[in-house]
Amino acid sequence: MDSERRHRIAHEYLVRIGEAKEWIEACIDEDLPPVVDMEDALTNGVYLAKLARFFAPKSVKKIYDEKQEQPLNLRHSDNFNSFRVASLKAGLPLVRPRAFL
């Protein structure tokens, strides 16, 4: 029963990631990596900064490593900050990470 439940949870997670992937692709007009690689693809914030540029273009001045060819040397935090600022300007609610128990 536990393995069946874990399988269902994993399936639901992948479905949601797939829906988010399709939405981001439609917004930025660019193909993203396959669903199973999405977590790694989002770690540098490039796609999130591109998404931020879509819904709040004046908020994103520069996307660091937009071509994703070279190391970011800690500039990825600027990509995440661009997304956060654009989200707030667009009126999206501020989401705070949950504390770990």
Q: Could you please describe the fold and organization of this structure?
A:
This protein has four helices and no strands. The protein is an all-alpha fold. Helix content is 55%, strand content 0%. It has helices at 2-28, 38-42, 46-55, 76-89.
Keywords:
single chain; 101 residues; mainly alpha
Radius of gyration: 15 Å
Rounded to the nearest angstrom, the distance between the terminal CA atoms is 26 Å
Helix content: 55-70%
Quickly give the structural class: mainly alpha
Ordered list of secondary-structure elements with their pairings:
Blueprint: H1 2-28, H2 38-42, H3 46-55, H4 76-89
Précis, in short:
It contains 4 helices and no strands. The protein has 101 residues and is mainly alpha-helical. The radius of gyration is 15 Å and the shape is globular.
